[in-house]
Design brief:
transport; elongated; 3 strands; 38 helices; TRPM; TRPM_SLOG; transmembrane; mainly alpha
């Protein structure tokens, strides 16, 4: 009566208080639903309302992502006489409701557990055991013999549905966790399909129960049910379930499509943050309800990584295929095959990947190389002829999604799968670092920025650990790891990323230093007085043939340019085989040939030897002039010559018309301007504004731009009469200052002067 009314507050007096009305509430519960049917001293009055409430709850979804309803389960802890009838009602329903009994909790729970064990083999108890059990019922519930016999009958009827009853002994060492045992009881007691059972286990986040009771050998699965489970696991951030599905044969190349990847990006609590990043990347505001696309996410990735990075999602062939896919979807939407057409649509990324190549290959003999190339070409054509997936690097795409969704544990798990662990760790480090910067710029919570910074440090340390582990196990393989060009990350090389990561982590690797030296010298094998040998060879080209070059085995770990690979170094190693020759010819030569055949063979061998020797000289010349160190010294010598000519032009009297020396200076600067223009136009970004932004981000490019403009202004004034000629000469004098300052960039390469020049520049 005290609680009747709306928003009524009354004090609760526990049993120990003298003012208590003998009403006991369990202190371990957080909420109570009190029911009053008007009776007094009669238990079980709440059963009707409980049934209605349970049916209503069963109509709800167990999770917003899942279509599975809330399962019903009766948990018996202690309990009075009325609980026996309740258990019987539950197990006799159609479909039955599973019952979970806590053995050892006392009263009805212990009686049900005892009878469940005693009737496991024989449904009837022995006479003496039955008599003791009836006495136990009377003692537990405080009832007479007739009521005890009635309760025994109800308990026996419950045992007729013993498959719906689970006994849980919390004191047993072999017993599983309580929540896992309850879930197993629900799965065993319901007639749900395997996909529905998997949804329940996914909602409970119990991959161990799913592995034991659901993903069993021989179970039939509907088409697409496991793919939907994988999608739900990713959205719900169930790392253990993603691992479980992968271990049980889930093929990521078939799972991940454009539709599913876009659904992943448009789900989760971080969608608003991604929209802010898209607005910053596109420099525009997004309308309400805007759905993020893969092209938008490609812009975000480029925006966060910065530099000249190009995402796969923003390339022309992907955009074209994506537009065609959307066009087909709009035409097929009325027929109800919207998603099927999108899943069948494949983007021609395979054609894009044809120009990628491995820059470091293990040394193999000629026969092994030929057989490997043949098998590789066959495998490549087979892959291109089949149905290509829209996202060929599935784990890379999922890894980037996990990072952008701020799901660190999922990102760490996906980082362990697939290839290019070093590259992905550094990409994750860079993305988190940029996201932390964006959070601070947007005046968001500092805790979020610190969390991103911690995630970035974790991935950076992983990258360093991978490099350390590789170097400790095999130095040559570690060098190959650094020089392997990453096809999945669009022109980012492991070397560039690894050096950047090691620089930030203040880690110095002798492997990296050795590799940089090999990259610098290229095919040349020089240790002492290398610059003198190079300068002498540049001045006297025949001296090139006297230099020492690296063998093919030594070059296998040094990255080579595309032109070098196409040049065909194999031809220099093996002479051409004349047409019509075969193994029988060699056998005949061993047995002996007529005189004219021997003469032809000798002449052919002489021609082949001369041809191979000439080709070897050409190869050496090509290797010498394409080595980075040779290019540097050739540029340095020509630049010093340009400075001497420019200085001479300024020091001597300026005539009405430019002299030959001045025309050479004009030609050099104009060719430099053309080269700088080519650099800008051939850079990776698509838009000219982005190209210029990247190019002007370097100090020396700004200096070159000012020097070229100032020289062209001086040249235009110099071609006129006085006083413009004098102004042009003055512009020349000012302009040469920039060109002399440019010498500092060349001196920065020197191992002694370089560090000091770098410090002076930064100061």
């Amino acid at each position: 009566m005290d609680l009747i009314g709306r928003d009524v507050f009354r004090p609760y007096q526990p049993l120990g208080n003298p003012l208590s009305k003998r009403a006991c509430l369990n202190g371990f519960h957080s909420h109570f639903l009190l029911v009053d049917d008007g009776t007094l001293g009669k238990p079980g009055g709440q059963q009707g309302l409980r049934r209605k409430l349970e049916k209503h709850i069963q109509l709800l979804k167990i999770h917003p992502r899942l279509n599975q309803g809330v399962p019903a389960l009766c948990v018996v802890v202690e309990g009075g006489p009325a609980i026996v009838s309740t258990v019987l009602d539950y197990v006799s329903n159609v479909p039955p409701v599973p019952v979970f009994v806590f053995e050892g909790s006392g009263k009805a729970a212990d009686l049900i557990a005892f009878l469940h064990k005693q009737t496991a083999n024989d449904r009837q108890l022995d006479a003496d055991i039955k008599e003791d059990f009836l006495g136990r019922i009377g003692d537990v519930f405080g009832v007479e013999g007739t009521e005890a016999a009635h309760l025994y009958t109800l308990l026996q009827q419950c045992m007729d549905h013993r498959h719906s009853i689970t006994i849980f002994d919390s004191e047993s060492d072999e017993q599983m966790a309580t929540d896992a045992a309850i879930l197993s009881s629900v799965l065993k007691g319901t007639k749900a399909s395997p996909s529905e059972q998997l949804s329940m286990a996914l909602a409970w986040d119990r991959a161990d129960v799913a592995q034991k009771d659901i993903l069993m050998y021989g179970r039939h699965w509907q088409v697409g049910s496991l793919e939907q489970a994988m999608l739900d696991s990713l959205v719900m951030d169930r790392v253990s379930f993603v691992k479980l599905l992968i271990d049980n044969g889930m093929t990521m190349s078939r799972f991940l499509t454009v539709d599913r990847l876009e659904e992943l990006y448009n789900s989760g609590q971080t969608r608003r943050f991604l929209q802010h990043l898209v607005e910053d990347a596109k420099q525009t505001s997004l309308p309400i309800g805007y759905r993020l696309s893969l092209i938008d996410m490609g812009l975000v990735i480029e925006y966060l990584i910065g530099g000249a990075y190009r995402s796969t999602y923003t390339r022309k062939n992907f955009r074209a295929a994506y537009s065609r896919m959307l066009g087909k979807d709009s035409r097929c939407d009325s027929s109800g095959s919207f998603s099927k057409q999108r899943q069948k649509m494949s983007l021609n990324n395979g054609q894009q990947d044809l120009h990628f190549f491995r820059t470091a290959q293990p040394y193999k003999s000629k026969d092994q190389t030929v057989s490997t190339r043949t098998s590789h070409q066959v495998g490549l054509s087979t892959g291109l002829g089949g149905a290509l997936q829209p996202c060929p690097f599935n784990f890379n795409d999922l890894f980037v999604w996990a990072v952008l969704q701020q799901r660190q544990q999922m990102a760490l798990f996906l980082w362990q799968h697939g290839e290019e662990a070093l590259a992905r760790a550094i990409v994750g480090c860079k993305l988190y670092r940029s996201m932390a910067f964006e959070v601070r710029q947007s005046n968001m919570d500092d805790i979020i920025a610190e969390r991103f910074k911690a995630y970035s440090i974790e991935f950076g340390q992983l990258a360093v650990d991978v490099l350390d582990c590789a170097f400790q196990q095999n130095e040559q393989m570690a060098m190959k790891l650094l020089t392997s060009e990453m096809e999945a990350w669009s022109h980012f090389t492991c070397l560039q990323l690894a050096v950047s990561s090691c620089h930030r982590a203040f880690v110095s690797h002798s492997c990296t230093q050795t590799l940089l030296t090999d990259l610098w010298t290229g095919p040349l094998n020089m240790r002492k007085n290398s610059f003198l040998k190079i300068i002498l060879s540049l001045l006297l080209p025949p001296a090139i043939l006297l230099l020492e070059f690296k063998s093919k085995a030594e070059m296998c770990h040094v990255p080579q340019s595309h032109e070098t690979m196409l040049f065909g170094l194999e031809s220099a190693k093996s002479p051409p085989v004349p047409e019509g020759s075969n193994q029988m010819d060699s056998l005949d030569a061993e047995r002996g040939l007529p005189f004219y055949n021997k003469t032809l063979c000798c002449a052919s061998e002489t021609v082949s030897t001369v041809f191979v020797q000439c080709l070897s000289w050409i190869t050496k010349l090509y290797d010498f002039y394409t080595a980075p160190v040779v290019k540097f010294w050739f540029h340095t010598m020509s630049y010093l010559g340009f400075l001497m000519l420019f200085s001479y032009v300024i020091l001597v009297k300026m005539e009405d018309q430019p002299s030959v020396k001045e025309w050479l200076v004009i030609a050099y600067i104009i060719s430099t301007a053309i080269e700088k223009t080519r650099e800008v136009l051939m850079s990776e970004p698509r838009k000219l504004r982005q190209k210029l932004k990247i190019w002007f981000s370097e100090y020396w490019n700004i200096s070159d731009f000012v020097a070229i403009l100032l020289f062209l202004a001086g040249l235009s004034m110099r071609l006129h009469g006085d006083p413009y000629r004098t102004a042009g000469r003055t512009a020349y004098c000012l302009d040469i200052i920039f060109w002399f300052i440019r010498v500092l960039d060349l001196l920065a390469v020197n191992q002694h002067a370089g560090p000091y020049i770098t410090m002076i520049t930064k100061m």
